Every structure is written in structure tokens, then in C-alpha cells.
């Protein structure tokens, strides 16, 4: 059977076309990074409650052993990425730019593993058992947000999901981790998609890829064709536009449905999983392996040779950069994630997170140093905003500390994609203003909730 | 490897890349876009064009610098917006205007039209038009004298325009004899388009203005919405009048090619600061400008109404912005302006 990609049926609103810069790594095969000597595994990799450590200083751990368990329902467990000795359990800097409790492990080099028990009869097991396994494998959204996957896969009663979207859009400039995964291991992605389909009972799965990745599209078309028609996999080629891969925009492009303000994808019957997450689910079910490694793109003019690596979670970012030839002399900014939504880090001490899809190093010439001007009302931010907001107006409200006004202009709907600030000719810090406005609006709602309670 | 020195990396919020555009670059592009019209002005009005342009640009830049200094504020003239204001004001002046009046108008445009509101970004009205209208009401005779038009033979059939602008001639003719002054044929239209008519120094050549407009569109300094709706509504309105009463109304093309219609539609109604930020708002703004221009030309006391109509629409801009808020993604209905929650202090 031949599977051919279809065009996305609905156009996304707004968006920008930053220089993609993916050529540096798009054709480079993923290299497996040698085992690091020490690993720093964050216990706050996901959204929700941090994981609670189950090991202490001096403990010996094996690869795949649980070192922290979920701290609540919206939380996740964390596993030892290799075998070794726990050196410390303490607060350290993480790849999200914030300190959190981390488990530092000194690797013994043996990489001895616990026994993995695959669920080969997964097709006969109840969904609950599969979701439990996914929760037990510490799988979280690997596209960046890190939402615990088992929570997504447990929709409350009354919510039906009819559309599963596997997100391979990778609209962030420079990153090629998802691209390489689709080119090199499409089978894992497809296997993961099948398992999710089984869990949710959906009939059809869309694999969404931006049309600037023809190689990835061809690879997924081929594997879906080989798998045959009972899988009902559709490959959809999205127009290349940032932020096409953002969850709400992606669902809208494919189904025409808009996730309601303040709602979740399941409110419109949709579920989106990143391609990396799908592959991790396949590993957890078919091999019994927890999420302890990921593909990460190390790129930017600030490193000597850009690479795609397969690295263990907790690998110090230092090691990744060293394996990419080290920093150039005028490396000036380290971005964990992509240049549009990534987080600037103060150093390379932190360990790789499950959500870290890229490490982009900028040289000093490419770092934007701006002093902002008053808004000149050009309207480019309004045109660029994929959510239909008026960032210029919200920004002025926030600047005037009129947070109620900002909320009236729907600041809480902002997805912080950065399109407005990317376009702004007055170099206004629009995203910061949005974040401040959102934080203030949330705080105000909380205050009022406690007051009325 | 400098990376070993932690704490020396730049920390800032996302996004970490930028389109590279800036207010200064936009203003510079507008200046470039005005060069064709400036060249046309030099061709038609020679020394007067140079004199007025220099006077306005220098006076605007000086006024900007001095006011910023007096107010102890930064962002002086480096964003080039004062230069744009100077050029636009000069383009809206008749060639015979005395230099000192141009200087006074420039100072008024910058100080009263812009800086008293807080400078760039905060002025509700287009400063150049504020300057022009100030001059028009203060020196009505000087602002409507067209004696120095010097091109001897622009072509057959248009000799009559050497003493007044086409719009002025029409107004006079309609009030004195009650008929339109001349037949507006294709030949005349072409001459008008090239610039062979009397008028303010920067508005005469439609061809030069369109060259500049194409550049602005290409540079994304303006979008098509405002000019298309401005000129479109003018054309529709004037054509309806023409069809109803051909003996008292000129055809649509006459209205588009005379006065400040083209200059206004492409260079003044597109001023970012004083016009709406939404696309629908820009269309409304343009349509409003076009209709008001025709209303003033047809029934007003002045022969020309572009400046007034744009200023009036400038005043309506906050309302237009409010009325044309885009529907927010995930909000069910095209939103009426949702009232902000009550302030809880």
C-alpha cells in the first residue's frame, strides 16, 4: 500500500517565518554520545509536582532503576540513566534555568541494567495496564512542555478523543532532533502511535510534519505504507510556518477545531503527542525500557561542529557541547530548546532533561541587545499573533501596571510563542510583558478565589 | 574555551532571535520611498522644492532635538521620524510659501503635534498634517497661492492650470459659473499622472508617488489595506456623484489624480502611529478617509479635503482599534469588547 502525505486542510492564523537554520544538522545522523562520568538528573523535568527521590547519597543504582517516584497524579517518575553511585541528592541548576532537586550519579561505566519486562501481548491488555506502564516508565511530553503523558492518556469520563495527532512539525528554528528520529527510526514512532490508538480507541492517527522536511515525510510515508491499511495512518504536510507545531495551532490546522480558551485539546476530542514521546511509549511497552535517553540537537554558530546526539537524561550539557567540538571564543548565549521559545541558561552545569530537544549556542554578534522604544502601532504583532491577540495593547496595559486591563485583552490566552516580539520593530519586550500580565492575572484570580472561599 | 567561565552568558527572555527590523529602518525606508516624489518636486518646482524641503527637515529635526533636550528625555532624532515629518510637511506645502512659514509650521508639527504628547508613538494625530493644517488656518492666503509653477508647456490642453490647482479651479468654476471647468480626457489624465499640474510640491506626480509606494509595500512598511480602501472609496463615491450629475462632478480618475489623494493614501493614511493596528481597522480607516475627502471636496469650503479627512480619522483610530479587535483563538463568538473585570483594590 502506498501512503501519500496530504496537505493540512485548514490554515493557521498569524505566525512568522524566522530563518530556519536547520541545514547545519538536518542531514547529520544521530551519534550516540559516550556514557558520561557523572550525571545530574533533575526531579522537576515535567509539569506538575516534582518527583520525590527514593534514593540517598551512597546508594548503588542500576540503569532503569527508579530514583524518584511521582509526587502526585500530575507528576512523573524518574529513572537512573545508567548504573553507578548516588553522589548527592540536592538542589542544583537544571536545564529549565531554575534550580530544583537533582540526583547526581557517578557512573560506574558498566551500564548494568535492571531487567526490562516488555508487554509483548499489549494488544490484549486493558488500556489501564498500558497507561500504568507508561506512567511507570516516566514518560512525559518530549516536545518541550513536559506534560506527564499518562495524565493525557487518562481522559476523565465523558471526554471522548477521536483524533490522535503525532507531532513531528518541529517548527522551532535550528532543531532537528525530531526530524532525525523520523528519518532514522520511523518504526518506533509508528509503533508508539499504534499503542496510543489502542489505549484511546481512536480510529485514525495523523502524523503531522512541516513541509520543509521532505525526507522525514518520505520516511514516514514509507513505513506507514509498509504497515498496511489497518493502521489508518495519515501523513499530513503542514505549511512551514512558526508556530505550526504548537498544540492548539496544530489541532486547528488538521481538524479545524479550536481548543476553547482555558481548555484542553481533549475538549475538542484531540490528543497531540510529540514523535519522541511516541517512540518512548513504544520502548516502554515493547522493550520495557523507561525514558532515560533522548535525541538532542546541539547547534548554533557558538559551537564548533553542530551535531545530533542520542544522550542519556542527566548528561551534563558541558559534555554535549564538548562532543560538538566545544564553544567558540565569542559564544555568548546558551539556549536550552529552540531560539523562539527556549530558555537562556547561565552555564552548562545542568543535566539534559527529557524535554531538552536542543541546545542552541549563539555568538555575541547574534545576540539581540535591545533597548525598547514606545510602541509605534505598526500592527505587525497583531498580524503575527497566532492566537488573535493584540500584543501591543496588552503590553501597554502591563507597562502601565493595568493588569485588569491586560486580562480584559485576554492576556491569559497567550501561548508565549514569541512571534510578536520577533516582529516588533520597536524591540519591545512583548513576551515578558505577556508573562508578567499572565502571572498577575493568575495571582488576582487566586486572591479572589481565596477571598470568596 | 570561554564556556568554562559560567555566569558570563547572556540571560534574557525568549524569543532569542529577531526579524532585524527597527523603527529607524522603517523610517529610513519611508525617506527612500519619498525620494522619487522629491525628484519630481525638484523637476517641477526647482529651487522652491529644495528650499522648502530643507527648511522643513532641518526645522523638524532641530525642534525634535531641542524639545527632547528641554524635556530631559532620550530618543532624540536618531529614529529619523522627525525627518519623515519634515519631508511630509514640505510635500504638503505650496511652492511659493515663504521659508519662515515653513519653519514655523515644522516647529508646530513637532512640538504641538508630537512632543507634547510624549514623542514618537504617543501622538494621536499625524504631526505633518497638524503642521499643514496649522499653516492653512494661520496663513490661508500664502497656503493657497500657486503663482510659482514654472514648467512652461506641460502639454496641450492643460495651460489653464498654471494659476490654480485643478481642484481649486473646479471649486471656483462651480461656484461662479456652476459648471465643471474643462473636459477631463485621457490626455489630461496622463499629464496629471506624470505631474503636470499645480499643487503642493510633493503631491503633483502620481507616477513618482506610486514608485515610492511600491517600495514601501515591498519593504512591508505599509500594507495594501489602507490605500486600497482610501482610493477605492473615493473612486466609488466620486463615480456615483458623476453618474448622478455629470455636469457638476468630475470623473473618479480626476479625483484620484488631483490634490493630495495619492500622497495621502500611501504616505499619510499609512502612518503607523496614528492609524489602526488591525487589518479590518485599516480598511475602515482608509474607507473613512476616502469618503470624508470626497465629502469635503464636494460640499466643503476647501477645494481639498485629504488632510482634514486623515486627521479626523486619526481621532477615530482608538475607537476603530477597539471595535475591530480580532476574535481570539478559542473564543466562541466574534467578541464584542469584553468588559474588563472590575478593579479590585
Summarize the structure.
The complex is a heterodimer of chains A (453) and B (345). With 453 residues, chain A is an alpha/beta fold.
Provide an overview of this structure.
Chain A has 453 residues and is α/β, with parallel strands linked by helices. Among the domains of chain A are: 6-28 and 120-287, Rossmann fold (3-Layer(aba) Sandwich); 380-452, no CATH class. Helix content of chain A is 29%, strand content 20%. Chain A is built from 14 helices and 18 strands. In chain A, the strands form four sheets. Chain A has a six-stranded mixed β-sheet, with helices on both faces. In chain A, helix 2 (127-136) crosses helix 5 (186-200) and helix 11 packs across helix 14 (430-452). The longest helix of chain A is centred in the last third of the chain and has 23 residues, at 430-452. Chain A starts with 5 loop residues before the first strand and ends with a helix. The relative contact order of chain B is 0.11. In chain B, 56% of the residues lie in helices and 0% in strands. Chain B folds into two domains: 23-143, no CATH class; 164-323, no CATH class. Chain B has 14 helices and no strands. Chain B is mainly α.
Topology of this protein?
The complex is a heterodimer of chains A (about 450) and B (about 350).
Chain A: E1 6-7, H1 23-26, E2 31-32, E3 38-42, E4 52-53, E5 60-61, E6 66-69, E7 78-79, E8 84-93, E9 99-107, H2 127-136, H3 149-152, E10 163-168, H4 177-184, H5 186-200, E11 205-210, H6 214-227, E12 233-238, H7 247-255, E13 270-274, H8 275-287, E14 293-299, E15 307-312, H9 317-323, E16 331-336, E17 343-345, E18 358-363, H10 380-384, H11 391-399, H12 403-408, H13 419-423, H14 430-452
Parallel strand pairs in A: 1-12, 2-15, 10-11, 10-13, 11-12, 14-18
Antiparallel strand pairs in A: 3-9, 4-6, 5-8, 6-7, 8-9, 14-15, 16-17, 16-18
Chain B: H1 23-45, H2 47-70, H3 81-91, H4 99-111, H5 127-138, H6 140-143, H7 166-176, H8 186-194, H9 206-218, H10 225-244, H11 252-257, H12 261-268, H13 279-299, H14 306-323
Amino acid at each position: 500500500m502506498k501512503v501519500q502525505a496530504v496537505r493540512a486542510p485548514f490554515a493557521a492564523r498569524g505566525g512568522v517565518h524566522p530563518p530556519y537554520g536547520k541545514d547545519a544538522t538536518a542531514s547529520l545522523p544521530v551519534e550516540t554520545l559516550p556514557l558520561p562520568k557523572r550525571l545530574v538528573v533533575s526531579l522537576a523535568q515535567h509539569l506538575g509536582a516534582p518527583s520525590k527521590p527514593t534514593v540517598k547519597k551512597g546508594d548503588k543504582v542500576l540503569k532503569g532503576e527508579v530514583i524518584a517516584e511521582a509526587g502526585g497524579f500530575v507528576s512523573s517518575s524518574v529513572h537512573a540513566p545508567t548504573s553507578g553511585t548516588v553522589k548527592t541528592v540536592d538542589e542544583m541548576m537544571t536545564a529549565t534555568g531554575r534550580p530544583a532537586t537533582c540526583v547526581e550519579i557517578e557512573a560506574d561505566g558498566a551500564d548494568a541494567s535492571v531487567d526490562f519486562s516488555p508487554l509483548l501481548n499489549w494488544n490484549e491488555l486493558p488500556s489501564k495496564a498500558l497507561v500504568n506502564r507508561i506512567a511507570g516508565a516516566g514518560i512525559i511530553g518530549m516536545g518541550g512542555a513536559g506534560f506527564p503523558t499518562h495524565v493525557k492518556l487518562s481522559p476523565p469520563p465523558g471526554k471522548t478523543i477521536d483524533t490522535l495527532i503525532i507531532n513531528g512539525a518541529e517548527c522551532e528554528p535550528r532543531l532537528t532532533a525530531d526530524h532525525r528520529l523520523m528519518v532514522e527510526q520511523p518504526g518506533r514512532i509508528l509503533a508508539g502511535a499504534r499503542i496510543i490508538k489502542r489505549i484511546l480507541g481512536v480510529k485514525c492517527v495523523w502524523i503531522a510534519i512541516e513541509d520543509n522536511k521532505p525526507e522525514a515525510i518520505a520516511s514516514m510515508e514509507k513505513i506507514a505504507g509498509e504497515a498496511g491499511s489497518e493502521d489508518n495512518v495519515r501523513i499530513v504536510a503542514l505549511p512551514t510556518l512558526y508556530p505550526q507545531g504548537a498544540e492548539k495551532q496544530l489541532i486547528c490546522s488538521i481538524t479545524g477545531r479550536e481548543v476553547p480558551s482555558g481548555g484542553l485539546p481533549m475538549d475538542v476530542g484531540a490528543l497531540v503527542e510529540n514523535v519522541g514521546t511516541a517512540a518512548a511509549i513504544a520502548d516502554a511497552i515493547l522493550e520495557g525500557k523507561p525514558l532515560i535517553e533522548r535525541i538532542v540537537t546541539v547547534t548554533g554558530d557558538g559551537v564548533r561542529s553542530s551535531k545530533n546526539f542520542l544522550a542519556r537524561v542527566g548528561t551534563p550539557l558541558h559534555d554535549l557541547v564538548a562532543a560538538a567540538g566545544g564553544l567558540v571564543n565569542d559564544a555568548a548565549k546558551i539556549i536550552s530548546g529552540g531560539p523562539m521559545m527556549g530558555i537562556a541558561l547561565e552555564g552548562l552545569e545542568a543535566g539534559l532533561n527529557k524535554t531538552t530537544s536542543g541546545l542552541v549556542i549563539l555568538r555575541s554578534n547574534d545576540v539581540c541587545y535591545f533597548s525598547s522604544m514606545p510602541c509605534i502601532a505598526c500592527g505587525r504583532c497583531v498580524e503575527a499573533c497566532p492566537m488573535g491577540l493584540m500584543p501591543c495593547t496588552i503590553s501597554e496595559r502591563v507597562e502601565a501596571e493595568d493588569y485588569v486591563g491586560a486580562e480584559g485583552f485576554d492576556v491569559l490566552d497567550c501561548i508565549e510563542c514569541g512571534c510578536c516580539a520577533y516582529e516588533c520593530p520597536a524591540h519591545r519586550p512583548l513576551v515578558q510583558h505577556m508573562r508578567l500580565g499572565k502571572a498577575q492575572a493568575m495571582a488576582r484570580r487566586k486572591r479572589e478565589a481565596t477571598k470568596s472561599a | 574555551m570561554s564556556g568554562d567561565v559560567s555566569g558570563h552568558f547572556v540571560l534574557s527572555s525568549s524569543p532569542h532571535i529577531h526579524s532585524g527590523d527597527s523603527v529607524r529602518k522603517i523610517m529610513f525606508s519611508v525617506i527612500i520611498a519619498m525620494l522619487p516624489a522629491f525628484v519630481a518636486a525638484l523637476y517641477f518646482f526647482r529651487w522652491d522644492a529644495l528650499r522648502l524641503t530643507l527648511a522643513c527637515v532641518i526645522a523638524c529635526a532641530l525642534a525634535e532635538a531641542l524639545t527632547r533636550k528641554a524635556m530631559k528625555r532620550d530618543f532624540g532624532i536618531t529614529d529619523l521620524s522627525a525627518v519623515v515629518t519634515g519631508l511630509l510637511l514640505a510635500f504638503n506645502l505650496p511652492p511659493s510659501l515663504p521659508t519662515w512659514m515653513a519653519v514655523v509650521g515644522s516647529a508646530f508639527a513637532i512640538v504641538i503635534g508630537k512632543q507634547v504628547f510624549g514623542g514618537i508613538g504617543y501622538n494621536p494625530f499625524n504631526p505633518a498634517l497638524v503642521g499643514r493644517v496649522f499653516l492653512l488656518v494661520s496663513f490661508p492666503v500664502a497656503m493657497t497661492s500657486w503663482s510659482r509653477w514654472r514648467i512652461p508647456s506641460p502639454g496641450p490642453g492643460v495651460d489653464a492650470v498654471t494659476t490654480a490647482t485643478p481642484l481649486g479651479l473646479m471649486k471656483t468654476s462651480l461656484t461662479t459659473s456652476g459648471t465643471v471647468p474643462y473636459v477631463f480626457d485621457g490626455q489630461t489624465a496622463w499629464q496629471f499622472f506624470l505631474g503636470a499640474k499645480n499643487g503642493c510640491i510633493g503631491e503633483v506626480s502620481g507616477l513618482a508617488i506610486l514608485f515610492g509606494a511600491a517600495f514601501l509595500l515591498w519593504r512591508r512598511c505599509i500594507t495594501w489595506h489602507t490605500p486600497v480602501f482610501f482610493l477605492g472609496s473615493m473612486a466609488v463615491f466620486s463615480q456615483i456623484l458623476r453618474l448622478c450629475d455629470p455636469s457638476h462632478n468630475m470623473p473618479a480618475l480626476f479625483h484620484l489624480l488631483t490634490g493630495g489623494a495619492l500622497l495621502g493614501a500611501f504616505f499619510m493614511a499609512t502612518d503607523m502611529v496614528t492609524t489602526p493596528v488591525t487589518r479590518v481597522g485599516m480598511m475602515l480607516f482608509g474607507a473613512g478617509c476616502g469618503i470624508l475627502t470626497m465629502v469635503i471636496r464636494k460640499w466643503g469650503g476647501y477645494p481639498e479635503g485629504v488632510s482634514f479627512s486623515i486627521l479626523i480619522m486619526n481621532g477615530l483610530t482608538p475607537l476603530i482599534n477597539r471595535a475591530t479587535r480580532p476574535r481570539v483563538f478559542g473564543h466562541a463568538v466574534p467578541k464584542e469588547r469584553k468588559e474588563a473585570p472590575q478593579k479590585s483594590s
